[in-house]
Specification:
five-stranded mixed beta sheet, alpha+beta, Rossmann fold, single chain, 11 helices, nine-stranded mixed beta sheet, 422 residues, elongated, 21 strands, 30% helix, BirA Bifunctional Protein, domain 2
């Protein structure tokens, strides 16, 4: 893509209201734009990152048998009254009336809707186990939206729901999802700990959050100094040593990047979602649910991958793998910077490499480099009069202070090699 045609422009200073590093840099880099409190547009750069995260999630969840569907955001209020969550869910629902005085809600989660589907289509133990998921808009009536994409009122979530005939089979699938989540986070460049957690208003028998340790995090987690045990502060209340091994714990700030629940029969019993077991008896479906906020995961990647200049995107989710930056003066004495840059851009595209080409006129080298550091593509390629004179291009990783000059004839293969290592 030519940078001159990219929708949006970078800001030298972050707006006053930006708080966390991800909020500052995503706003300054024109990845996101705030429409209202907790309401954001994903601009083209941000949407490219979002789509790459979404695809990683889709690949991993489909690999464990999740079937993708799409459920409505607009939901009948009577479903929520069936489960008793009409007044109790926290944060409270966005509620509205249609022109026929029917009460509707904007879905903050989809347990009610998916259980309604299950009672329509699951009849026998032969239909079990099964799992369905979606990547879809959710609405949370937050009292205070903070941190850019970290706490919002409208967001995209991957929510997976599983149905089982036995608790043992739920336990099996729950552990499978837990390991799948760890792979998703690793592929997105985020280290996350599964921690024991309170089930809150979602409910169920037990749950695990996935927490990324970060100074900007709103949550506090207790991490054992000896074993792998970790829990949120609600679970650790009245305890100052590890519940598993008895060693000392330390409190750390963290960002919640996912939450999974063993729902059991909480929703199926209330909504009469049953199946006929192998003995011909009617039984309530045993359920699990598993969520990842896609925008929050995007922001968390920035929280853990940035410096004082801007973002350092993990290669797997970077909007572009390469930022091509030609440096030309009004009088390009060698006449080759633009020609070589364009040829390099076209060659890299033919190799299937995502390239952002900074073709903007009238900017100094410093201005272009500052924008490149802010945007945070993993690899920067510089073509200048100096490199042209030496039949070379300059290659630099965003995460490194060092750069190298590579002969033009070798540059494509070298860049392909570096991209393959991202």
């Amino acid at each position: 893509m030519f940078q001159s045609t990219l929708f949006g422009y970078t800001l030298k200073e972050a707006p006053r209201e930006t708080e966390s590093p991800s909020h500052r840099y995503l706003t300054r880099g024109a990845y996101i734009n705030q429409l209202g409190s907790g309401i954001y547009s994903l601009l083209p750069l941000g949407y490219r990152v979002y789509k790459k995260i979404e695809e990683i999630i889709r690949q991993e969840i489909s690999a464990i048998g999740g079937q993708e569907l799409l459920m409505p955001s607009l939901q009948p209020g009577n479903l929520w009254k069936e489960t008793g969550r009409w007044e109790t869910i926290d944060p409270p629902l966005f509620k509205l009336q249609d022109r026929h005085d029917k009460t509707l809600v904007l879905g903050s989660t989809h347990e009610e809707v998916v259980t309604d589907l299950a009672r329509s289509y699951i009849r026998s133990y032969r239909d079990l186990p099964c799992a369905v998921y979606q990547i879809q808009t959710k609405f949370r009536n937050e009292m205070r939206a903070t941190g850019g994409l970290l706490r919002v009122r409208e967001f995209m979530m991957k929510d997976l729901y599983s149905f089982h005939a036995t608790t043992e089979d739920l336990d099996r699938y729950y552990e499978l999802v837990k390991q799948t989540y760890l792979r998703i986070y690793k592929r997105c460049g985020v280290d996350a700990l599964p921690i024991s957690a309170s089930s809150g208003s979602i409910g169920g028998n037990s749950s695990n959050e996935f927490a990324c340790i970060a100074e900007s995090g709103e949550d506090t987690v207790a991490v054992c100094s000896q074993c792998q045990f970790a829990a949120n502060v609600e679970i650790m209340e009245k305890h100052d040593t590890c519940l598993e091994c008895g060693h000392a714990i330390r409190l750390q700030k963290a960002i919640e990047v996912g939450h999974i629940f063993k729902l059991g029969t909480k929703y199926s019993e209330k909504m009469n979602a049953t199946f006929i077991d192998e003995h011909g008896k009617k039984q309530p479906l045993i359920m699990g649910c598993y969520g990842i906020g896609v925008g929050r995961l995007l922001a968390t990647a920035v929280e853990v991958h940035h410096d004082d200049k801007g973002i350092l995107w993990p290669g797997s989710i970077a909007p572009f793998q390469v930022h091509l930056v030609p440096l030309t003066h009004k009088k390009d004495v060698h006449g080759g910077v633009g020609k070589i840059s364009l040829a390099l851009y076209e060659s890299l595209q033919k190799e299937g490499i995502d390239v952002l080409y900074d073709d903007r006129d009238g900017l100094t080298a410093g201005e272009k480099f500052n924008d490149s550091d802010l945007l945070g593509m993993p690899i920067r390629i510089v073509v200048s009069e100096k490199t042209v004179a030496n039949d070379s291009v300059e290659i630099k990783f965003r995460s490194s202070q060092k750069s190298e000059l590579v002969n033009q004839n070798e540059s494509i293969e070298r860049i392909k090699h570096y991209v393959a290592t991202l």
